[in-house]
Amino acid sequence: MFGSFLKTSQVKSPWLMHFDCGSCNGCDIETLACLTPVYDVERFGIINVGNPRHADVLVVTGTVNQRNAVILKNLYDQMPSPKLVIAIGACGCSGGVFREAPNVLGGVDKVIPVDVYVPGCPAKPEAIMDAVVTGLGKLKGILEASK
Amino acid sequence: MARTVIPFGPQHPVLPEPIHLSLVLEDERVVEALPTLGYVHRGLEMLAVKRDYNQMIQIVERVCGICSMIHSLCYCQGIEEMMGIQAPRRARMLRVVWSELHRLHSHLLWLGLFADSFGFESLFMQLWKIRERIMDLNEATTGNRVIVSVNVVGGVRADLDESQVRWIKDTLVEVEASIRSLQSTIMNDSTVCKRTKGIGVLTRQAAYDLGAAGPMLRGSGVAQDMRQLKYAGFDELNFEPVVETAGDCWARSTVRFRESLQSIDLVRQALDKLEPGDLAVKAKGKPEGEVITRVEQPRGECLYYLKGNGTNNLERVRIRTPTFANIPPLAAILPGLDFADVPVVVLSIDPCISCTER
Questions:
Q1: Nearest C-alpha of chain B: how many angstroms from A116?
Q2: Which of these, A43, B90, B194, B254, has the minimum number of CB atoms within 10 Å of its CB?
Q3: Which fold has domain A2-145?
Q4: Which residues contact B253 (CB under 8 A, 6 or more apart)?
Q5: How confident is the model at residue B278 (pLDDT cuts 50, 70, 90)?
Q6: CATH number, position B341
Q7: Given this model, what pLDDT does residue B225 score?
Q8: A29 touches chain B (CB under 8 A)
């Protein structure tokens, strides 16, 4: 019974962790704007946490470079399964305008598996919220399959 | 007393961006702070040799999303100076309008994050609610909320019509009233004062010697603001730098609070001075020579060095950003603080790591 309670709450109230992985701040402030009164994702039970061990969803903005690739991998490995990764913005999807820059490896999927891609430079808060909802559908499918 | 080393970052709830500080503590007191950078480095100055000078506008806008308009303004001014052209008057006034709207939303964003750093979450939410009005103005006038992309070499690419000018003025009246309603909380509330007054004091002499920039410098009593250089349309506007003398976190937040009201005033002045005219002059030829331009970002002085060699690509782009200038003063004020004050003091310089590392 406790297991089914956990599974329900993971989909109904996902905890989200944001990691800035070499973004220009554009997508970061749009992700933060989702938490503030005009968009307010907390009304859906989504809470922003700082500890990867508490998080269900990892929201990554920006490109991966030589240095933060290790940090990103560490954060992902510390999160409990099942977990969801959302790559935000053109940089998170493919490297964006920086894809040819010398220190840039490319999109987030070069390092960790990504479930949802959000296009836009920067992605709008509505698009980010839509991505979280889409991702939760996927998470629900995984949880039901593991029953 | 044995020393403890506490790693702070790169992923930390109070930091919106990754920076790593190794804090050496004795008991609860910080003895030394060693910053480590490089988590946001992309190497975008090198892209100047791959993209032509017009495409570089899109790259420099993405040095930092929060003040993107001001980065491209500085870059375009530099290229214009190299090519010997000047943007038309209407374009220069419009540049003031959008750059001051950017400053306003950046300061509101920072005041919110600052409030959050000492746990005042309701103030954070209030300030970000006001900020969304500015984002609406940006989106309606330029087509994008954050990276507005209005500057081109020789002028601007977007225009304001009469109804938009009226709407901006009406919105700013409401925004100003909402900001003023929070004034007593930000400046006089006892819980805010306990966490900010007398914390992280940077003296006037130290600020000057260590080369601090922007609100960090003005909070310590030095009246230096790059808008005094009268770039863009600032030559026709009334403007006095905002100065506080205490040099602590409270002074820095007060400078930013007063500057956000000043930005509203500057937008109004620029809108009043708008006259019909061209939006851009045509740029002919290729940039050649060396040039240094400076503008005032929300965080302080931003300097661009551009070197062209008569081809489509620039030979060198060098960007010096205000946060880079503010890291030595930060490292100087951290020792001696309580560990609990570190997030507040780190945020009080308004760190923009993506600017610093590019």
A1: 22
A2: A43
A3: Rossmann fold (3.40.50)
A4: B111, B114, B186, B196, B348
A5: confident
A6: 1.10.645.10
A7: 86
A8: yes
